From TrEMBL:
GO cellular component terms attached to this protein's record: plasma membrane
Ranges in coiled-coil conformation: none
GO biological process, one term: signal transduction
Keywords: Cell membrane, Membrane, Olfaction, Receptor, Sensory transduction, Transducer, Transmembrane, Transmembrane helix
Membrane topology: Multi-pass membrane protein
The name this protein goes by in its record: Uncharacterized protein
GO molecular function: odorant binding; olfactory receptor activity
Phylogenetic placement of the source organism: Eukaryota, Metazoa, Ecdysozoa, Arthropoda, Hexapoda
Length: 256
């Protein structure tokens, strides 16, 4: 769990920095190009006051800058929050495997209670992963489709501006495209880790661990509890999907 917390922390910092980099780059390039544009604000908009006079103009610019910064923070927070939940489930499965490896070392008097806790914990981890999947799969579908559409339009715009040799806009589009790709990579990475490393590899590994532990030295009543873990581990692979349509994996990322 310490490793999971460390990975989640680094992921959160990286995503936040990337989103802020996009905002800072856009504001700097926008300020540089204001004298060549008929729009003197960061974004076009309609306001119930005259934005061409001071201090309305300065306050509007500050307001738009604050709104962009807050929006980027909220945007990266959702991505990293989902990744943190999935990584948390993977860490719990690793802890569960460690508990099974030491099952023969537990006190014989408390063995039945310990096995019961392990079975309940395994069921809770599965329910937790399924809850995360059911809550966010539709949102992840729109995120994936939105990312695909963004990549198409941004790449087309970059090609058009490359012909016009607009260097600053090309730089911004490159940074923006890299950020969008990293966002999609984050979903595919945690989905790959959950599906193949924890759901398939770790779950099958948990079943193998339950079988390879010294179950023959346990009382028959306690040894039968391991069958529940083995059946649940093999029969219910965990996964992260986009609207139940496809699994988030590195293969999906490469196809996109």
């Amino acid at each position: 769990m310490v490793n999971v917390a460390r990975i989640s922390r680094k992921t959160t910092i990286t995503c936040t920095i990337l989103c802020q980099l996009v905002i800072v780059t856009y504001m700097l390039l926008r300020l540089f190009s204001l004298k060549y544009s008929d729009n003197k604000l960061f974004f076009r908009g309609y306001f119930p006051y005259d934005v061409t006079i001071s201090p309305n103009y300065e306050l509007t610019m500050i307001g738009q800058a604050i709104a962009m910064t807050c929006s980027s923070i909220f945007y990266s927070t959702v991505d990293t929050f989902i990744a943190m939940l999935i990584l948390h489930a993977c860490g719990q499965l690793s802890n569960l495997k460690e508990d099974l490896m030491k099952i023969h070392l537990y006190n014989k008097n408390n063995l039945h209670r310990t096995l019961k806790k392990i079975v309940q914990k395994h069921d809770n981890v599965n329910r937790f992963s399924e809850t995360v999947e059911n809550c966010f799969n539709l949102m992840l579908l729109f995120q994936m489709l939105g990312c695909i559409i963004q990549l198409c339009f941004q790449t087309f715009q970059a090609i058009v501006e490359l012909e016009q040799r607009i260097v600053f806009q090309i730089i911004f589009l490159c940074i923006y495209t890299v950020t969008a790709m990293v966002q999609l990579l984050l979903y595919c990475y945690v989905g790959e880790k959950l599906t193949f490393e924890s759901a398939i590899f770790q779950s099958i590994d948990i079943a193998d661990t339950a079988y390879n532990c010294e179950w023959y030295s346990l009382p028959p009543k306690n040894a039968r509890l391991l069958v529940i873990i083995m059946c649940r581990a093999v029969a219910s692979p965990l996964k992260l999907t986009a609207g139940k349509f496809c699994w988030f994996t590195i293969l999906l990322y490469s196809q996109i």
